[in-house]
Amino acid sequence: MYPLVKQIRNIRRTLTYYSHLLDHCLSLKSVKLTKVVHGQLIKVGFNGHTFLGNRCLELYTRCQFIDDIVKAFGDITRKNSITWNIFLKGLLNCGYSDMAHSLFLRMPERDVVSWNSMLSWYASCGHTDFVWKRFREMLCMGVKPSGYTYSIIVSLVFDALSGKELHGRMIRSGLITENVVLGNSLIDMYSKIGLADYAIGVFSSMEYLDLISWNSLIMGCSKAGYGELALSQFSSMRYLGYPPDHFTCSAVLTCCTNLRNLEKGKQIFALCIKVGFLSNSVISSAIIDLLSKCNRLEHSVQLFKELDRCDSAVYNSMISSYASHGFSESAIQLLVLMLREGIRPTEFTLSSVLASICGIQADQGTQIHSLAIKSGFGMDFIICSSLVHMYATLGLIDCARRIFASIALPDLVCWNIMITGLTLNGRLVEAIDTFKELHRRGPLPDQISLTGVLRACSYGGFVDEGIAIFSIMEEYYGVKPCYDNYACLVDLLCQDGRLDDAMEITEMMPYEPSSMIWELLLHACGVHGDVRLVEKVAQRLMELEPQLSLPYIVLGRIYEMRGQWEDIIRVRKAMKRNVVKNFGGCSWIVIKNHVYSFTAEQLQQHAGKDIYSVLRLLTLEKGEITPLETNLAEIDAMESCLW
Q1: Which long-range contacts (CB under 8 A, 24 or more apart) does 395-403 make?
Q2: Where are the PPR repeats (predicted)?
């Protein structure tokens, strides 16, 4: 009996020795040492031992060597649930999802760890529907979810009903009582779906709180639109002695930005300097954004210049600040500086620059487009949406259409950009067709979509289509007509000659009619020669815009057509008595990065006299085609207007 006991003790010592060796391999994360130990196990015949085999399998799983994982799994003689779970996790980590799914289905025992591995994999791949499907199967199989299971599912809740149902299950399971992580997840979930009161309820019922709990509550209240409440919770947190970290300060700064509360933001700024958070790029970018949104762009620039180190987040905030204030050239120059310093632009960087490009910078827009393609963002959804907007603004509507067509699933914002761009570029039939396509296969149209298509109907004279869309927009789409929608309807009725209906709509609309609507009515009444309506509308327009010449001109024309000479004299005297101001339009052109603007009979730029001299020479060269004296006289007249 003694030799047998001695043999058992030797085996135990050997197992303990190899177990410690494998622990050492795990701590060092050394693949080479793991293979050496595994080779020794094979020599002594312990590679089939369940415990040691599981340790080797776990080591290979962390290193993601699929061949070694499969071999180690096959060597284990008696596989337990831990063996199967480690092997399943190894297949998933190495990207063999089909093989893992097949293994999952034929596992002799699927416990909560097995289900969690599959749920976590589906969630990381963005397959939300599969996660919910597997979770329901798990419940039907009688497997009790763990806290980790609920933490996966909670992150995928996007509606109040599912969130409340899941919360109820967690309460019944008893896991939420002392689990801080689950409590924090619930706070984040309720905040994400806009139920800030439920988030506060969960926070108040938690037995233990940590800094993440406070951060989740503050961020949640801010995201849900309860900025003042978020600031109040931050004050309570400070009062109770919880030291804020950079996530807390970033959330509070974002809250101050949303509220445009510069004074409170300055206090948080001072706190960040005091505790040494200013070197954190998240904090720096949040402060730059705060100062910019509160119309302190010069302070944003000063802070940016004083920072010792800038990364892409700080550059993005500064570029966005320049873009939002209309300084597109500064935004582009900062992008160039960013590239020179070797900082790779993100999709947000390029999107901000594209948004700042106005209608006189087509060359720069195409250069940014090329940079986006070279940076690997050519098919990025945010970049494509910005490109559609930029090309539509520049008037290159065909380029915008091609990029829009390349987007697999455009969101409503992108649809709206396309409809509005086509309308503003005179492609009215295409704008209406795009709206019909949105109605057929896209999300439900909103106020912007309907305003864009109604403007297209108004500009193109598509009376029936416009009236039909306006009549169903509130009932079918759930969108209450805004002021612009009523203006389009009035214009459509005027084009159809239904002046009485247009007048009735104007007087009954829930908004105070502006001079624009009265001008539409006045033009229509003047065309149709309705003296009664012309006088009524002209009177209202004179009350709103007493210095506008239009009502006097239309009245004078209608009186002249009817031979009412006394009324004509009265209108002319009234027009002379009121100081009528005429505002001319402006045209501009870019030549070698210089903008030249023109108004009626005037050239506004520094080299105007030189340009007229060149024009005089060109006219002299073409003297054989046009009368020389007439051209020179016209040039002299225009040149005199310049001075």
Answers
A1: 395/359, 395/425, 396/362, 397/421, 397/422, 397/425, 397/427, 401/430
A2: 80-110, 111-145, 210-244, 311-345, 411-445
Q: Kindly report the number of other CB atoms within 10 A of residue 145's CB atom.
A: 22
Give the residue from 408, 411, 401 showing the smallest Cα distance to 433. 401
Quick check: 5 pLDDT over 50? no
Whether residue 514 is contained in a domain is answered as: yes
Asked if residue 509 belongs to a domain, the reply is: yes
CA distance 444 to 473: 11
CA distances from 273 to 246, 249, 283, 310, 538 (A): 11, 11, 10, 17, 62
Q: In this structure, are 495 and 547 located in the same domain?
A: yes
Beta pairing partners, 602: 599
User: What is the Cα–Cα distance from 407 to 410, expressed in whole angstroms?
Assistant: 6
* 254/233 Cα distance (integer angstroms): 14
**In this structure, is residue 616 part of a structural domain?**
yes
Residues 499 and 563 placed together within one structural domain of the fold: yes
Reported as a pLDDT band with limits 50, 70 and 90, residue 1 is very low
Kindly indicate the confidence band of residue 419, based on its pLDDT and cuts at 50, 70 and 90: very high
Q: Give dist(CA 57, CA 521) in Å, integer.
A: 81
CATH number, domain containing residue 552: 1.25.40.10
Reading the block at residue 445, the tokens are 């149209």
Which of residues 525, 544, 577 is at a domain's end?
Answer: 577
How confident is the model at residue 21, as a pLDDT? Answer: 55
Tell me: the pLDDT tens digits for 489-526? 888 888 887 878 888 888 888 887 777 777 777 777 76
- 600 in a structural domain: yes
253 pLDDT band, cuts 50/70/90, is very high
Mean pLDDT of 22-38: 56
SS3 letters across 173-189: HCCCCCCHHHHHHHHHH
Q: Among residues 162, 63, 57, 173, which one has the least CA distance to residue 112? A: 173
User: Of 577, 599, 623, which one is at a domain's C-terminal end?
Assistant: 577
Question: Higher-confidence residue: 80 or 306?
Answer: 306
Q: How many domains does the chain have?
A: 2
Q: How far apart are CA 252 and CA 275, in angstroms?
A: 15
Query: pTM for this one?
Result: 0.65
- Count CB neighbours of 310 within 10 A: 19
Q: Which residues of 547-567 are buried (b: 16+ CB within 10 A; e: fewer)?
A: ebebbbbbbbebbeeeebeeb
Q: What is the model's pLDDT at position 604?
A: 47
Q: Which residue has the tokens 């762009």?
A: 297
Does 567 lie in the same domain as 496?
A: yes
H or E segment and range at residue 16: helix 2-28
pLDDT for res 290: 92
CB environment 98-115: b (16+ within 10 A), e (fewer):
eebeebbeeeeebebbbb
Structure tokens of 64? 């993601």
Q: Are 510 and 561 in the same domain?
A: yes
